[in-house]
Amino acid sequence: MITSLTLLILSLMALYIGAGWLVQGSSALALKANISPLVIGLTIVAFGTSAPELAVSLGATLRGQGDIAIGNIVGSNIFNIGVILGVSATICPLQVKKQLLRIDIPIMLAATILFTILFWNGTLGRMEGLFFLTGIIIYTLFSLLYSRKQEEEPNLELEEQPKHWAVDTLTIIGGLVVLVFASRLLVDNAVSIAKELGVSEAVIGLTIVAAGTSMPELATSVVAAYKHKTDIAIGNIVGSNLFNILAIAGSCSLMHPIEAKNVNYIDLLVMLAISILLLPLMKSGQKISRTEGAALILIYVIYLFWLLRDTF
Q1: H or E segment at 123?
Q2: Residue 94 host element (H or E)
Q3: Could you give the CA distance from residue 199 to residue 202 in angstroms, rounded to a whole number?
Q4: When you count CB atoms within 10 A of the terminal residue's CB, does the N or C end of the chain come out lower?
Q5: Does 242 map to a domain?
């Protein structure tokens, strides 16, 4: 038990480091390509910080652990909004850009609703996976094309990117290698702990694994909120939740049909409800206040107590 817990903590640290390298390298390459900062936040940074979720869910799918694969996705989306946005808003009220309200958040809600409907029977097939993957490709291409139509300020951050593109590429490769190794370590030891405690793999996926793989998002959004870059704090979460559903659930179920009967309708409805709640919260004064941030945290705490009610 102690050995598994130690290895679990080490794997979480490795995931954080690997995701950091991946985000750093990909963001630097994107800046060199003169992609707008907003699109970098919604796509590259958001997708990069979701790399641990991708690595863990793919690994779990390959080993037939559907409860961990899907539990990780659902749990991460709930954690991202309830804890990460909640904590970020308590640090600094989050101002919301009109583009997020008009385009990105409605797309995230549509993806969440579709996932809830398609996974309601506890399974995801290859057709659903292909549909989700097509969705993330269309969204990414749209974001890139839309950003080029908008007037952007000169990208001053380019002056802060002196490294050669080859260094950035090696950083990305190094990050991916660490992520693959750490994700295997995380899943194996999470399952070991679950068996020793008598906790289901679904609960471990929804809690420990989901929170652990969301650490890059937590670090990114909290630092962004502290620096008053609130659009990055929100964009990172919206983009990450989209990636979790469309890219991760899509690639996993396309690779192998997933069955996760222990991730039940309550978990799906909590994810859906807290996602829908974002829209009225953000429309009220185009920001998420400190009080609203505290309410999001409370919702997550209540859900966590419900989830673990029979564990101890």
Answers
A1: strand 123-124
A2: strand 94-95
A3: 8
A4: C
A5: yes
